[in-house]
Write a structure and sequence with these properties.
The chain is of the alpha/beta class and 345 residues long. The protein has eleven helices and twelve strands. Bound molecules: 3-isopropylmalic acid (IPM) and manganese (II) ion.
Length: 345
């Protein structure tokens, strides 16, 4: 019989609350014969305060043994900015070679969005996850003086760009509209821009059925708001993808609904699924957090592990729940319970 060995990192702030709901829905949707084994890892702000640890090697090795990771949120105002982000979240993405950061955007019914009533919005952003300005290459000269100079180098390798571009073509080719848009800024960032565009064009020759488009990132932000229906699959670098996916979430129903998967497509390492939102310390513990983004991340997780029917079931439950939810304000728990009841039906 089948089994899922899942690592769970609730993390900080609302991470704890939303992950509990994600697990509730996961348990409810899985067929009886699938054995779910979860192991919780205590990582995040509390652990750092207690021990100074962010992600010790022993735990990284233990995490590697799982089929997938479900993560809530990382980051807390009591920890200096960047410590947990870099030494825990980004360390996981780099160590497990999550080169495809998959972020779907769908306009669900009844969501508070400036674009309500617009034509269907249903696109995915394939954000590169292991390179760009996220590699920590750079430095500072004459730090703290009026003559300070800081550099932050964006690393783009042909190997790294080609594998993510290829993944994006595969995804576009498998969708009905078969359209892939490269977003970059090759009028200014000429070296990285040309690398991306050349590889995008070359790999595209292998996918004659995929329609391609190129947009500068600034122009793309306009179209996200004025014409989001023009997008099907978008491929872009790590930093542009970070910014664009927050914008995408804001225009398609809010950050409370945005799911993501940090995918290692080769299967060498476990992929990691997490809501796009952060730890929201301002509402932590109040029961106000919307667990839907985490529940939708569980859907991505199931799809990745081959449980397509269960993944669809969750998406349908979310759509139905949002339709019925209307303007009613419900707690984290109530939303989790409602979704679990729907998928179990
Ligand atoms: C995200 C977050 C992270 C990122 C931060 C917390 C390092 O904003 O997952 O989008 O920039 O990738
Ligand atoms: Mn972000």
């Amino acid at each position: 019989s089948r089994s899922i060995r899942l690592a769970v990192i609730p993390g900080d702030g609302i991470g704890q609350e939303v992950v509990a709901q994600g697990l509730k829905v996961l348990t409810a949707v899985l067929p009886q014969d699938v054995k779910l084994e979860t192991k919780e890892y205590d990582l995040g702000a509390k652990r750092w305060h207690a021990t100074g640890d962010t992600l010790p090697d022993a735990e990284l090795a233990a995490l590697k043994q799982h089929d997938a990771i479900l993560l809530g949120a990382i980051g807390d105002p009591s920890v200096p900015s960047g410590v947990l982000e870099r030494n825990l979240l980004l360390k996981l993405r780099f160590a497990f070679d999550h080169y495809v950061n998959l972020r779907p955007s769908k306009l669900f019914p009844n969501t508070a969005t400036p674009l309500a009533g617009r034509p269907e919005i249903d696109f995915i952003v394939v954000r590169e996850g292991t390179e760009g300005p996220y590699t920590g290459n750079g430095g500072s000269l004459r730090t703290g003086t009026p003559a300070e100079v800081a550099t932050e180098v964006s690393v783009n390798t042909a190997y790294g760009v080609e594998r993510v571009v290829r993944d994006a073509y595969e995804r576009a080719n498998a969708r009905p509209r078969k359209k892939l848009t490269l977003v970059h800024k090759n009028n200014v960032l000429v070296y990285a821009g040309h690398l991306w565009k050349n590889i995008f064009d070359r790999v595209g020759q292998e996918y004659p059925e995929v329609t391609t488009d190129y947009l500068h990132v600034d122009a793309a932000t306009i179209f996200f708001v004025t014409q989001p229906e023009r997008f099907d699959v978008i491929v872009t670098d790590n930093l542009f993808g970070d910014i664009l996916t927050d914008l995408a979430a804001a225009v398609t129903g809010g950050i409370g609904l945005a799911a993501s998967g940090n995918i290692n497509p080769t299967g060498e390492f476990p992929s990691m699924f997490e809501p796009v939102h952060g730890s929201a310390p301002d509402i932590a513990g109040t029961g106000k957090a919307d667990p839907t983004a985490t529940v939708l991340s569980v859907s991505l997780l199931l799809r990745h592990l081959g449980f397509e029917a269960q993944a669809v079931r969750i998406e349908e439950a979310v759509a139905a729940d949002l339709t019925e939810r209307g303007d009613a304000v419900r707690s984290t728990d109530e939303i989790g319970d409602a979704l679990a009841a729907r998928v179990a039906d």
